[in-house]
């Protein structure tokens, strides 16, 4: 509308399944011939809200491991005190997982400079097992959602999980539903001209950025995995973080100001000069 010509083409993508992992959407798209033909140099994805004056900027994200831990044991009548029951093994697994969860929670509580993206988050999300209340089941299955911090050695983390299962007793094993590898973060330094353009725009507007690791998962990880620099950003500050909560809202003034912020940022990114590896 302002008769502006940009150096780079802007493509807007709409994908169907970000909330459930992106497997059939962005994960498949980045492997396609059509995506390669776009010659993407940089990606700007959704970000999160920030309760303070600053704006959150995600330059990486944790590895998501979704797992079902099977705890099998001796079945029988509920009136008996049998050995080697599935429930006893469940107790041992829960103790290990929640001990680690408490350690990570204490890190947050004791260091105000940290946020949820800096620690490993572990939560029990589903418990399966049993048919009726007077029968000891042969198996319980515990589902955990683990968001592993980028500072964690994933190989050592898996060894720890296997050790916990071994300690819990025979017949305890892990079924992985997702096991995301560590993906390199996007650099926030002078080697990344897109970051420099982004920061320059924010400095010009006299606004504050808070770079962080995304505590959740987003489709942009599939672009980072193939070497494309990417940032997660939404111009939402002074707003409670209520994603997936009841009564999520956005103040109209924050929304309208966000349009102006995008109006400055997007042309700056789209006018970054050609770089050698493109």
UniProtKB/TrEMBL annotation:
Q: Which GO terms describe its biological process?
A: amino acid metabolic process
Keyword Cell inner membrane in annotation: no
Enzyme category, top tier: hydrolase
Protein family according to the UniProt entry? Belongs to the peptidase M20A family.
User: Which residues are noted in the entry as Zn(2+) 1-binding?
Assistant: 46
The protein's name in its UniProt record: N-acyl-aliphatic-L-amino acid amidohydrolase
MF terms from GO for this chain are: aminoacylase activity; metal ion binding
A single GO CC term for this protein reads: cytoplasm
What the entry lists under Pfam families is as follows: M20_dimer (PF07687), Peptidase_M20 (PF01546)
The record's listing under InterPro entries reads: Aminoacylase-1_M20A, Bact_exopeptidase_dim_dom, N-acyl_aa_amidohydrolase, Peptidase_M20, Peptidase_M20_dimer
- Peptidase M20 dimerisation domain segment(s): 59-169
Catalytic residues as annotated in Swiss-Prot or TrEMBL: 18
Chief location:
cytoplasm
Q: Which cofactor does it need?
A: Zn(2+)
Q: Which domain of life does the protein's organism represent?
A: Eukaryota
| Cofactor comment text | Binds 2 Zn(2+) ions per subunit.
Locate the residues binding Zn(2+) 2.
Answer: 19, 244
EC number(s) in its UniProt entry? Answer: 3.5.1.14
Does this UniProt record's set of keywords contain Phosphoprotein?
no
The major lineage groups are: Eukaryota, Metazoa, Ecdysozoa, Arthropoda, Hexapoda
Keyword terms, alphabetized: Cytoplasm, Hydrolase, Metal-binding, Zinc
Can you say where in the cell this protein is located? Cytoplasm
